[in-house]
Inverse folding.
């Protein structure tokens, strides 16, 4: 369970993180001193502001906030129903910390943005979804006690799972249903919480709205690019010497952020989180921190997550751990997730072990792309394909069965520790008579060579195949097969 919020840094002018150096956490008095007063806005006024700011969702998808707001307004009028405002502060991805920073240090910015939206929509309720890891909830509750909100404001606890942060899963959870995405895609702007038109957006998005309401669209656009004005919150971890949540101006060179966080020489950098894409060290030297700038070098901004890999860890092994995690985080309600993602994880593992070509990974990814009830299969496939495209030299070394010579250190921010007891199969050739039973028990790892004798990679047995490997050891009639500790 996460308990410690990482340090905060800034490159350029602080906006969301203004006052952090002086106050640490901004209570209401400090918040008003740093950011100044804010008043309610009518619907047309808030729409003009959101459009002028070119505000897009900060949760990963980057959907224009003004379009969401307009859709809810039209739905309320069409159905003659009240609206609900939902703040998604659940941040289910383990590698992300930016929303936790806002919850713990600038909760009033989030509440300001939600209050602006609730007033403009004449909403009945504001619901804020937070993770059950305990980070940020107390700070948010304290902030609510310090002020009066325009409507009833409640906090809903969400399981700290990757899939629970998806918008439809959050709405389901608020409605008392399982915290998983709905089986069919539907618009929360038409029917969300309690069947009412619902404005759903990420915590940082509401905080940016509050900043823009004070500055106005023109001053807000004094920072950033023409296409993406303002600032961006990033979570930088992995091989960084100084992991941090960083606020930077949109369009700033990525190299400035990496230098600030003391990122050493890398093999590649994951941009956008577990549903993001890898970029090469060469691409990182020219990339700009914006959706457009990162797309130009094959990356993505996504949820604002940056995970550089040092040169002393196995990149494909690290990627395989993430794919296995994502397969386990499936909602398990549609075929591409329930069966396709485990197949993809198996294909990546076996490619790392050197017993299957990369084409099998590509085929497994193709089986799930565009076919799920939510975006989880697409994001997982994108991550896996990006890994085998960027780490081609490592893939070549693994294809020989000898691996790259580097161990998996578990630096991707996954919950729990890496395998503490890696094991590999060994064979006593003086005992083996080529019965072939072991290959029938665990065919994904053990194959029979041209002479009918077992062949398997010298790398550790993947954890998900450990049970099968143990069974193979037990069925060997000559006691030739063993599981030994991997060095």
């Amino acid at each position: 369970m996460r308990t410690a919020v990482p340090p905060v840094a800034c490159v350029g002018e602080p906006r969301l993180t203004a006052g952090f150096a002086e106050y640490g956490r901004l209570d209401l008095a400090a918040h008003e001193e740093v950011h100044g007063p804010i008043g309610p806005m009518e619907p047309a006024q808030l729409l003009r502001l959101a459009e002028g700011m070119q505000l897009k969702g900060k949760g990963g998808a980057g959907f224009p906030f003004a379009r969401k707001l307009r859709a809810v307004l039209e739905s309320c009028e069409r159905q003659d129903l009240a609206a609900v405002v939902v703040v998604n502060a659940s941040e289910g991805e383990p590698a992300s910390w930016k929303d936790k920073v806002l919850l713990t240090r600038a909760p009033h910015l989030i509440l300001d943005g939600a209050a602006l939206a609730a007033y403009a929509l004449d909403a009945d309720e504001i619901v804020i979804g937070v993770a059950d890891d305990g980070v940020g909830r107390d700070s948010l509750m304290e902030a609510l006690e310090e002020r009066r909100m325009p409507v009833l404001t409640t906090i809903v606890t969400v399981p700290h799972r990757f899939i629970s942060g998806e918008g439809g899963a959050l709405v389901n959870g608020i409605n008392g249903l399982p915290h998983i995405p709905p089986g069919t895609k539907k618009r929360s702007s038409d029917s969300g919480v309690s069947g009412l038109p619902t404005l759903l957006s990420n915590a940082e998005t509401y905080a940016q709205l509050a900043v823009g309401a004070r500055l106005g669209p023109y001053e807000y656009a004094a920072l950033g690019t023409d296409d993406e004005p303002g600032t961006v919150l990033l979570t930088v971890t992995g091989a960084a010497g100084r992991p941090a949540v960083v606020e930077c101006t949109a369009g700033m060179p990525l190299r400035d952020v990496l230098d600030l966080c003391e990122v050493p020489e890398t093999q590649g950098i994951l941009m956008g989180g577990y549903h993001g894409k890898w970029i090469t060290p060469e691409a990182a030297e020219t990339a700009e921190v914006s959706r457009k700038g990162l797309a130009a070098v094959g990356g993505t901004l996504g949820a604002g997550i940056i995970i550089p890999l040092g040169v002393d860890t196995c990149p494909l092994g690290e990627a395989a751990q993430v794919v296995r995690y994502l397969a386990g985080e499936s909602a398990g309600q549609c075929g591409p997730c329930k069966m396709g993602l485990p197949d993809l994880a198996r294909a990546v593992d076996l490619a790392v072990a050197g017993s299957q070509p990369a084409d099998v990974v590509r085929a497994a990814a193709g089986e799930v792309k565009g076919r799920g009830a939510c975006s989880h299969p697409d994001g997982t496939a994108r991550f896996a394909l990006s890994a085998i495209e960027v780490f081609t030299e490592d893939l070549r070394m693994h294809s020989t069965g000898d691996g790259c010579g580097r161990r998996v250190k578990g630096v991707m921010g996954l919950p729990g520790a890496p395998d503490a007891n890696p094991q590999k199969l060994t064979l006593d050739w003086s005992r083996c008579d080529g019965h072939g039973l072991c290959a029938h028990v665990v065919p994904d790892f053990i194959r029979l060579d041209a002479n009918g004798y077992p062949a398997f990679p010298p790398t550790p047995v993947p954890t998900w195949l450990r049970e099968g490997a143990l069974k193979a050891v037990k069925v060997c009639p000559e006691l030739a097969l063993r599981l030994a500790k991997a060095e």
